[in-house]
Amino acid sequence: MTPYLFGPAFSTLVRSVRLHALEQGLELPCGLAPAGQAIAWRSEVHLALHPFGQVPVLFDGELRIFETLAICRHLDRRLSPERDGNPEQDAWSSALLTTVDSRLVRHYLLRVAGPRPAPFRTPEDEQRALADVDATLAVLDRQLGNQGFLCGAEFSLPDALLAPMLDYLEPLPALNWRTTWPRLAAYLDRLRARPSGQAILVATDLKLR
After folding, report:
1. What is the CATH number of the domain that holds 66?
2. Rounded distance, CA 34 to CA 92, Å?
3. Same domain, 11 and 76
């Protein structure tokens, strides 16, 4: 039975898990209705799957696995058991799911272009958030350097985690980051050109379904 990812298709984390799975040959369906049974957002059923009422949650047979990193590592064991651990990839995966996600997604992207925008209280608040975005992109640009991917010559989990963030940031007019960081822009283009990117990094509506 094909695993199912509980979470809306527009979620950056859902997109990341699906990219990671597809790079290993698994097309992972997603949505809010596993086995055709709709689960209301933050309902008792949802909270039983994820104690904080978040996404994604993986349904794999009898298993229910929440949190992005745990899901991706489970998929690695299931799909690519021959893979060894990689400390650099693990470190960047952790940083992307914490600091980078906080600065790019939680404190900026969702506030200006998410399904429930929350405008900044003052221009100063917005400028601080933009400064954090710019500083974070500078760090990512240094890490990328002239490599093909974030941690070397091959696609890995950190790329799956970063791709949806950059994809959503691109059209926001206040940033114009492709001009400032051309290596990151070329990197995003490479990710979009991959079969996984063509399947996952596509326009989607920001509605819970």
Report:
1. 3.40.30.10
2. 31
3. yes
Structure tokens at 9: 């298709």
The token duo for 6 is 């509980």
Q: Is residue 206 part of a domain?
A: no
Cβ atoms of 20 and 160 within 8 Å: the answer is: yes
Q: Which of 103, 121, 119, 101 minimizes the C-alpha distance to 111?
A: 119
Q: CATH number of the domain that 193 lies in?
A: 1.20.1050.10
Whole-number pLDDT of residue 119: 87
Which residues have a Cβ under 8 Å from the Cβ of 156 and sit 6 or more positions away?
86, 89, 149, 150
Nearest to 187 by CA among 173, 175, 199, 201: 201
| Structure-token pair, residue 123 | 């221009």
Averaged pLDDT of the chain:
94
pLDDT digits (tens, 9 = 90+) for 32-85: 999 999 999 999 999 999 999 999 999 999 999 999 999 999 999 999 998 878
Q: Which range marks the domain in which residue 26 is found?
A: 4-81
